[in-house]
Input
Amino acid sequence: MAGRVRAFWWIVLVLVALAVLLRVGFALAADHSLALGGDANKFRVTAAHVADGDGYTEEDPSGAIVASSEHPPAFPAVLAAMDLVGLRSTAAQRVGVAVWSGLAVAIVAVLGRRLGSDRIGLVAAGIAAVHPLWIQPAGVLMSEALVLVLVPLLLLAAVTALERPVWWVFALVGLCGGALVLTRTESALTVAVVAVALLVLDRRRVGQRLASIAVVLACVAALVVPWMARNAARVDSFTVSTNLGATVAGSYCDATFGDTPRFGGWSLNCAIAPAVPFVLEAGDRRPPPRLVDDAGRTAAKDFASEHRRQLPRVMLARVGRLWGVAHSGSQLSFDVNEGRQVTAQRAGQYLHWVLLALAVMGAVVLPRGWWRSWSLVAIPAFTTTVSAAVIYGSTRMRASVEPTIALFAAAAVVWTWARLSDRAPLDAEAAAPDEDLPVGAAQKEL
Output
């Protein structure tokens, strides 16, 4: 095994600068060519209301200010903070998000270093810096920009908790998890599985393990429950978001179960359909969010019950869309309709296929002794696949898995380089984190 890369932090600094440069460049180009729509526009409108002191609100068709509950609050809160410091235009916010989203590169570098070696961290950081699917979310003002920061931060905190099981590290796991849930609701499954994994992988006494996980759950609840209570008071729905009904209604319908380009995907027309009676009844007022949400959930449940035999095939198509290995042509069109730039999205699709193959290779060559910590990194791949199978598959939903892909692909690249240069390969005995040593000390450098 070679020693540490002496210039590690200088290389990380260069990669972060490159990441910011590419993201800002794309954001400036996007401001001239890509109009905001859909979720991105709603994020901005909600953020403006928050910054103006109205709270999480929106205007209904009559112009009245009403409580907003369609999306989780974290990303609009970040945009609102930018509003408050003077970054109120679309262009300014695109650039602002582009700048802070580059932090993900440094987090991935540190996470890869802690998991295995400096080289794994640097290769993974390089992937994060230049990958088009990491670059675009900032420029199109989508919440995936925040997801790509929070997921590696959550994984870094979880891996640190294994090597340093003290209460404040577990508190950090919980705070990162809570912030992630408040960014993307389906991330609750990832946070829950990370907590269970820490409980299982921790080698201390059962009482100590349970106390640590209690800290994690308490910190998650401290962030998430107040928002849910607010929704219960303002829109009569104790939930993180009232958008689940429309989401599942849009994925459980003839358009996504039949032989159409949307097979295994999502349909806006299907999502809107259950809300139409409530919209007509409300007239120029907003229909009650809870009733619309419940109607969407009921419509999806009824459709799924009537099409049980088709579910396995549809779920397989959803997973294929998520991982970019099926229906890639139609998925590219949907990605562009959501606001992505077609050339960048296509380049990201091609690069994803290469990285996915490398990630599979990385999982195969990874020393068995490393899996105690690396199993945490693999969790988003599992939980996001489950979410996609149940809800719908898309490139956008894969944002939570991109750090996992980058890290496992980096392990394959470093392993291959070591083989070709006649250096020692990944050594399970020398680098096994199962020894009673901190991960960074137990795992020798590549």
In short: The first helix runs from residue 8 to 33. Confidence is low (pLDDT under 50) at residues 428-446.
